[in-house]
């Protein structure tokens, strides 16, 4: 009998051991006893053309209070607890106490380190709070940069270059550290570690330092002219790279709004007629101060003055409406309105330029079968057509870029996308005209001694001729050729572009020259003692400063970004600042 009992006990013990082994296996295979921690991967950073940091991400620790869990222990009495109120005050959200009844989870706030959050939470409430690592995206929003950089939501780009380059910038894979334990013995079985894979960085063409300087200039000019908007676009003529894109408006009108081009369309029309062999620079016209484009129709298009006998060359220099309408008439009479539409379309009007910004509009260019009878004539003076500023900039650039259309771009790595529309012989003729527009014509107020400028004025009427948009678009030769467009919408003190837009164009060019003289001579050797800070978060910079490895570095953190400078003493013992260009310089305090 005892032997039978012994066998029974042995069988049961064996079965029990097998059961435990099976349970251990199940526990391991299902990770029932796994401890897992996740490190969020970060979105890639966005840099400007000079490697200044425009947008970046960092890990922060966010504390969430589980109110349902807390109520299951303390009902609603916790709201009167001084320690609870102190916790809300520590996170700067004391005013949220009135909203607690309608909340299940309360976000207390985010801090740089987990330990900082723990210190803000009284011991009694620690078990009701979850502290989670999260990504925080910060970007520069001033100087019109927010319209270019755009916004993100839940780690995805939703506007601007954040949206266009989202697949590049987006985090690839979060990091994971997982430790598996045996459910029976409680010992570590294995450890799985996967590093986070961040999104890639993007470099755009904008020069944020120059944009900052010109934004202030535009804002001051808007106030001076009592205008509703002042805008500036600066593009490298040969590459199409936009160095500045700004408007004082609250939305990006330069690619999401359209204007009539006014007389700035004339160089395009004149060049096209020359290319077709219909006119030359010496073709003659008679200007009595108006033109009747359609015989038998009681319609007159007025000119600003009576030019009398005038050739095509002087017609552009002095912006003669009669010469322009009659030049377009030669195109229409010879080839039909379809040819005029084809010309306008080839220069990019009526369709998106493809700039790397979501929401670009095509402007307004109706097909010929929807034109009114005299629309072709009004197009000759830049009416009956709506263009975005970025379209007009690219179209004008074709003339000053020797007949090659270059697609505007914000991608600093992009190979220029070009197409030839006109011969160089044609554009050389028109470029000479545009030079004299500035030297002795309607654009003389844009003239700068010793600087070669080609340009054209345009005054586009709007609001039943009560208001205008004053435009100047031109090319300036500095270190390389730049094509620049400025526009002043609804100026109240003066109206004509020759006395509103042309002098502002001159101010812009002078500011560019001043900016280049001030900053481009700085040598990177001044920072030979500094590590490569590109891509660093604020946390990394602070840790570097605390390490005590250098004593001549100063860091100032603004809502506009991170500013790092190296201070040196001059012979007069005054501190001078050499800008490291990690981000745009902060405002003067």
What features would you describe in this structure?
With 589 residues, this protein is an alpha+beta fold. Helices cover 33% and strands 24% of the residues. Strands 2, 3, 4, 5 and 10 form a five-stranded mixed β-sheet that branches. The protein has a five-stranded antiparallel β-sheet with strand order 12-11-21-20-19, with helices on both faces. It has a three-stranded antiparallel β-sheet with strand order 1-8-9, with no helix packed on it. Helix 8 (208-225) packs antiparallel against helix 17, helix 10 crosses helix 12 and helix 10 runs antiparallel to helix 16. The longest helix has 28 residues, at 2-29. The chain is elongated.
Q: Tell me the radius of gyration.
A: 33 Å
From the N-terminal CA to the C-terminal CA, the straight-line distance is: 97 Å
The residue-averaged pLDDT reads 85
Percent in helix: 25-40%
How would the blueprint of this fold be written?
Layout lengths: L1 H28 L4 E6 L6 E2 L5 E14 H8 L7 H9 L14 E7 L2 H7 L8 E11 L6 H4 L2 E2 L2 E2 L2 H5 L1 H4 L5 E7 L6 E7 L7 E2 L4 H18 L3 E8 L5 E6 L5 H4 L9 H10 L8 E4 L2 E2 L9 E2 L5 E4 H6 L3 H15 L1 H10 L28 H5 L9 H12 L3 E3 L11 E3 L3 H17 L12 E10 L4 E11 L3 E9 L7 H23 L18 H9 L6 E6 L2 E9 L5 E5 L10
Parallel strand pairs: 2-10
Antiparallel strand pairs: 1-8, 2-3, 3-4, 3-5, 6-7, 8-9, 11-12, 11-21, 13-16, 14-15, 17-18, 19-20, 20-21, 22-23, 23-24
